[in-house]
Amino acid sequence: MALLIILIICFVIILASSQPCQTPDDFVAATSPGHIMIGGLFAIHEKMLSSDDYPRRPEIQKCVGFDISIFLHTLAMIHSIEMINNSTLLSGVKLGYEIYDTCTDVTVAMAAALRFLSKFNCSREIVELKCDYSSYMPRVKAVIGAGYSEITMAVSRMLNLQLMPQVSYESTAEILSDKIRFPSFLRTVPSDFYQTKAMVHLIQKSGWNWIGIITTDDDYGRLALNTFAMQTVANNVCIAFKEVIPAFLSDNTIEVGINQALEKIIAEAQLLDVLKNVTFTDGGNSFHFDAHGDMNTGYDVVLWKEINGHMTITKLAQYDLKNGVFIITDQEAKNEFRNLKQIQSKCSKECSPGQMKKTTKSQHICCYECVDCPENHYSNQTDMDHCLLCNNETHWAPVRSTVCFEKEVEYLSWNDSLAILLMALSLLGIMFVLAIGIIFTRNLNTPVVKSSGGLTVCYVILLCHFLNFANTGFFVGEPQDFTCKTRQTLFGVSFTLCISCILMKSLKILLAFSFDPKLQNFLKCLYKPIPIIFTCTGIQVVICTLWVILAAPTVEENVSLPRVIILECEEGSVLAFGTMLGYIAILAFICFIFAFKGRKLPENYNEAKFITFGMLIYFIAWIIFIPVYATTFGKYLPAVEIIVILISNYGILCCMFFPKCYVILCKQETNTKSAFLKMIYSYSSHSAGSLAMSHVSLDSTNSNIPMTNPSPGGKSAAWQKSKDLEEQVFGCICRENATSISKTLPRKRISSI
Question: Is this prediction's pTM over 0.85?
Fold first, then answer.
């Protein structure tokens, strides 16, 4: 051991006082002959002196700044080769070495690479230029080094010419993993990619996002800085500052340098094709080169901690490159690792799920404010840059939500209180219809029932009301294509049939009690009950049929509301829907006109007055319905139409049948033939008198005869004419009642009613 120390000291003295080389052999730092030569590149000196000559001469200058740690790397290589030669590993084959000091300079390293590539056993140092170097025998078979990535990249590009294996012990630049540009390069340390990845992983586990970087001013430092910066951005970590220090620092403690260097000694003595597949173990750990020529050694995570003024270095964990995890072996290291999270290194408070980061005026993305996610947005992780949008068609989210909630499907269901109330009213209407039908059937031969047009007409109208009340059930419950089509067409046809029958009744009443000959002749020509009813109803059937065929109502999901999906019937064609309602309105208006003209007919049996009221109720209901229907939104839209249908149905039903039922049940004395004739006589007498007075006034005007008041003893001619007309009408009514064959005008009126 003492002899080894003396040799090392002598070697150090020689290298420290080295002069510029005069011959190629002077350029060699250490050499030993052998059957197979291994090259070595080590930066034993930190720099090369600049030449004072001008102009500068193309020669290698003196190197200065001895580095003991790199020198120990050189001795480690020599020692490894000597151990192999003294073993039986390569029986009969001796390994030689040729080691060069690169002086941490690319130019010097390139000069050494040229000598490595020179032809084997040649008297002169020459490198032949060939197209194929498969049979070319270079001076060395493989190269160990260099340490710095910048030098390694330059040398590797030259060694690629002959695919000479190059194994680096210290170059970690990520670009060297590119096997297209550096096919013969291998290394025993991981790439900077994994180093920076491990650092970012450690920062994340510690919960930091506000850090500073200190790097060296060389290719290694700059490339590592770029890679680290990209990974920090990808992981939302901000760099508060960057500090660059000189790449080469002197270590005055030789013993510390020796101890650190000895820990990194690794022996390599195989060619490229063997090296790529070699696997060896050390301390129970297996090592091999991957497809990129990098070794799977991983990293040690160490903690620098000052205790009582002294800096201690403690190993906390190992970083597994393959799995990207930290391996912690003892509990004390786990506690230290856990304590790292207590160190606060953040510019802003962490944004919780349901919030997003809002950047401030600072240039760093890690300085931000936390704001709540707006409605229909969510965030499910901490420190999210922006909130995610929910699918507005199917989901929703409240303010500051961490998840999206599925929209609830709504429609006017049978359990809804309003639907229950409306269905109860519809059921009550059906009961009224049945009760009225029973009352009219049991009083079939009474004047009231006969004056209503007979049981057939009443049954048709009551059937229409029954269908309309029952049709409201299609507006409740989950919409289906069948119900959407049925409810509008059934309402349109049944209501049109009802209005058509009422229209004929209005026309019939007006015809029966009209004393104007011209109007009576017009009404006689117009009054064709069955054809008119079929024609009016048939037109509505055609409208509804075309609607269903060309643009049928269908079920549609209304997703415009923020939190619910409304399942509703889309009418298919607004034009068809409006045409159907407009056609009913036209018939109702014509019916209203006819009924209004007959509003002063006999009081007890005057349907025209009640028809007028019924039509007015219908118009008021549907005039209100149009704007309400157009502005109502949501599941209660069908309820609006149900309410209008019920109002229309109840209005017409009450006006048409309730007065008659009241007479049948409560005023039976007026529901007799004699009472009927008496009332008709009274009305006819009054109408005939009015008509006579109109004729007398017209004759007096035409003859220019002044009208005078009758004397107490006499009566005017006009009064006498009116009296005669009353007697004539009364006589005709009596004869009709006795013989039933009179063909006078009063007879026609009575039979019509």
Answer: no
